[in-house]
Amino acid sequence: MTHMVMGPAVGAILGDLGAEVIKIEPISGDKTRALKKSGSGYFLTYNRNKRSLAMDVKKEEGKKIIQALIRKSDVFIENFRPGAMDKLGFSYESFSKLNPEIIYCSAKGFLSGPYENRTALDEVAQMMGGLAYMTGPPGRPLRAGSSVIDIMGGMFGAIAILAALQERQSTKKGQKVTSALYENVVYLMGQHMAQTATTGSAPPPMSVRVAAWAVYDIFETKDEEQVFIGVVSDTQWKLFCESFGLDDYINDKSLDLNKSRVDQRDVIIPRLQKLFKTFTKSDLMKKLDKTGLPFAPISKPEDLFDDPHLNESGGLLDIKIPSGGKTKLPAMPINMDDRRFDVHTPVPSVGEHTHKILEEIGLNEKEIKDLFDQEVVSNG
Fold it and tell me: Residue 362: left (phi > 0), alpha (psi -120 to 50), or beta?
């Protein structure tokens, strides 16, 4: 029982891995389906490999269906506001009485503590957890350019579920696990907190940070495109200079060590900016690719549809859009035994699998018809 991004991401990850995932949504459909603008891609991205059961869970017959499903299930996932599941009678305590082995995953804004009843969003967590401060220019906190904390929260929810399932093999008992937005951001900030502790000074936003390496920058090309280039070791520096004919830099012993090069960035970077302006983006990338140096074109999300690596490696999956048409969306970013994970159940339409799921929990045709007639369930 999830909506938006964080909760659906938990189920999407498990679904990609092969779990049978049933999405419970209102008879009118999950409101995430109807989001526009920046939210218009949420439903399509995080609801593949799920079946849809559309129902009114506030009606007594609806609650009985949920209880029947809990008796047969390994995991329950929810990401509604604190207390919402308790009011419906869907708390961990009530479900564990029906099925002592159930793993109950809550995806929340905060873990237990003074903030636990606050309402949180990805952006709220980024602001109060320090990520927005570290991302934007000084005085202008800026959220990251994706629902990174919602997605990370989904990942940690899935990790907790998998750990709980493993533990259940020895204890024969389920448990409640919780993943939270705020604590996810704080986990990301650990490196900056450690920097403060070890250096005695707080790090500035990444937009104005002093690079740890002499060459670690975005450069413009002849055709007004951009490429990031990093030279992060003394060995790479020599390789870099040899590749671009910078013989005087090779012979300058004051540039042999990274620390000395960082001190001379004000001389090195302007020269490299002029050098890279003589290359087109395509030619510069071909040259960098041969060197083995770290580099990257500055890409937009829409560029990824045609990325040759993603298309040839199975990194993009064919996804049917419930309203019609199809597109390509990212596969899970892992290999297991040289396998990528595919779509085994298309993104469902509202209530697409309602009838079949009701059959699976043991209802006969008359009972199912009665539920449809009473508007307890729907198939869209």
Answer: left
Gap between the Cα atoms of 359 and 357, Å rounded: 5
pLDDT of residue 210: 78
d(CA 92, CA 85): 9
**In sequence order, which residues have a C-beta less than 8 Å from that of residue 218 and are 6 or more positions away?**
226, 227, 228, 298
pLDDT at position 371: 98
Each residue's pLDDT tens digit, 280-307: 999 999 999 999 999 999 999 999 999 9
Q: Which runs of E-coded beta strand occur in 112-244?
A: 175-180, 215-220, 226-231
- Cβ pair 230, 219 in contact under 8 A: no
Amino acid 380: pLDDT:
81
Sign of CA dihedral 286, 287, 293, 295: negative
Give the pLDDT confidence of 317-348 residue by residue, as tens digits: 999 998 899 999 999 999 999 999 999 999 99
Q: Does domain 208-299 fall into CATH 3.40.50.1000?
A: no
pLDDT digits (tens, 9 = 90+) for 219-247: 999 999 999 999 999 999 999 999 999 99
Q: What is the C-alpha separation between 282 and 141, in angstroms, rounded?
A: 34
CATH 3.40.50.10540 fits 6-188+350-378, yes or no: yes
Cα torsion 239, 241, 245, 250: sign:
negative
- Which of these, 335, 299, 5, lies nearest to 153 by C-alpha position? 5
Residue 72 CA to residue 157 CA, distance in Å, equals: 21
Residues of the chain with CATH 3.40.50.10540: 6-188+350-378
Q: What DSSP string describes 75-118?
A: EEEE-PSTTHHHHHT--HHHHHHH-TT-EEEEEESS-SSTTTTS
Angle (CA) 311-315-144 rounded to 5° is: 115
Q: Give the Cα separation of 150 and 38 in Å (integer).
A: 14
Instruction: Give the confidence band of 211 by pLDDT, cuts at 50, 70, 90.
Output: confident
Q: CA nearest 61: which of 355, 372, 353?
A: 372
Residue 136: Cβ-neighbour burial (10 angstroms; 0-12, 13-18, 19+): middle
Q: Per-residue pLDDT averaged across 202-223, rounded?
A: 93
